[in-house]
Design a protein that fits this description.
The chain is mainly alpha-helical. The chain folds into three domains: 83 residues, Serine Threonine Protein Phosphatase 5, Tetratricopeptide repeat (Alpha Horseshoe), CATH 1.25.40.10; 104 residues, Tetratricopeptide repeat domain (Serine Threonine Protein Phosphatase 5, Tetratricopeptide repeat, Alpha Horseshoe); 83 residues, Tetratricopeptide repeat domain (Serine Threonine Protein Phosphatase 5, Tetratricopeptide repeat). The longest helix has 23 residues. It starts with a helix and ends with a helix.
Length: 333
């Protein structure tokens, strides 16, 4: 009943507005339109001067006049909507949140699928400390429209709240809507692991790989899968994933990781191959030289080991360890 009364009141106001506009002479309408346009332009100028409250006042003045002269014969819908947009943004910028909400809600009436509006409303409600409303505004949109940025925002809210089960649901939605965002797949896998569903984490990677994405995406997926396996202590699986990523594109970080992992497995020849790949890309890479030195030391090639360590004795992070390695080797000779 209340909604019906409100609707009737709005219709009455609109009818009155149109009737009022129709009572004006053409000259009066032209004069008012000129004043409205002048106020609008002054608002734009004040905005460029960063006088935001002044801009708000002028835009409000312009809006009031455009509403007065808006009619079926002389519609001002486009300019009125433009002013709604300007005022929503300005009230948001100046932290006048209740007024910002008012104009964003007006915009929602004719832009129901505009996800940027609900993202802004979400941020406003968060700033006001109303976390329930901030989430609900996104959930309401998500029921009717598909937008990965909204699904991501919902997932992040659940993640921050520690609700990983719901976070997984919305990260999966976001990833389905934008499969190029492989960081969402990484999030899904980590959360499956945290909730004791590690097989589902691995399956999520395998399912996506089976869709045969483009190589530039696939190499990122294999890299993330390698990191996932490495963090779980599944080193052989990690190596296999990293090698698949490296085969798609040479990457010095992946090459170094492989060199380090093979060194830890005492497979020095393979480790050297990957470390040499690092140095082919970055000849002064201190970590690669350090591990090359350690490999030569393990192989008993003292001179080569010292030569590698001497290249990094002045490195702020590794210099101390390089000097210790040199001293150790010299004692063995």
């Amino acid at each position: 009943m209340l909604k019906k009364l409100v609707l009737l009141a709005l219709i009455s106001i609109m009818i009155y507005g149109f009737s009022y506009a129709q009572q004006l002479t053409d000259r009066e309408i032209q004069e008012k339109e000129y004043k409205a346009g002048t106020a609008y332009n002054e608002g734009v100028e004040l905005f460029t001067q960063k006088n935001y409250q002044g801009a708000i006042d002028k835009f409000n003045e312009s809006l009031e006049i455009y509403r007065e002269i808006d009619s079926e014969e002389n519609p001002k819908t486009d300019r009125i909507r433009e002013l709604y947009k300007n005022l929503s943004v300005l009230f948001y910028m100046t932290k006048q949140f209740n007024d910002a909400i008012k104009y964003y809600e007006l915009r929602k009436e004719y832009e129901p699928d505009n996800y940027q509006i609900v993202i802004s409303l979400n941020s406003i409600y968060e700033s006001m400390g109303d976390s329930d409303k901030a989430l609900q505004i996104l959930l309401d949109y998500d029921e009717n429209y598909d937008e990965y940025k909204v699904s991501y925002k919902i997932a992040k809210i659940y993640e921050d709240a520690g609700d990983l089960e719901n976070a997984i649901i919305y990260y999966k939605d976001a990833f389905q809507l934008n499969p190029k965002k492989v960081e969402f797949l990484e999030k899904i896998a980590i959360m499956y692991h945290k909730t004791g569903q590690t097989p589902k984490a691995i399956q999520a990677y395998e399912d996506y790989i089976s869709t045969k994405p483009a190589d530039y995406i696939l190499r990122k997926v294999y890299k993330n899968l390698g990191i996932f396996y490495q963090n779980m202590g599944l080193i052989d699986d990690a190596i296999a994933a990293f090698e698949k990523s490296f085969a798609l594109k040479s990457d010095k970080d992946i090459a170094f990781t492989l060199g380090q992992l093979y060194y830890d497995k005492a497979q020095y020849q393979t480790a050297k191959q990957y470390l040499q790949s690092v140095l082919a890309i970055d000849q002064n890479n201190p970590q690669a030289h350090y591990y090359m030195g350690k490999i030569y030391r393990e192989e008993g090639q003292w001179d080569k080991a010292i030569a590698e360590f001497e290249l990094i004795v002045n490195n702020p992070q590794l210099g101390k360890f390089a000097k210790e390695e040199i001293e150790f080797i010299q004692k063995q000779q």
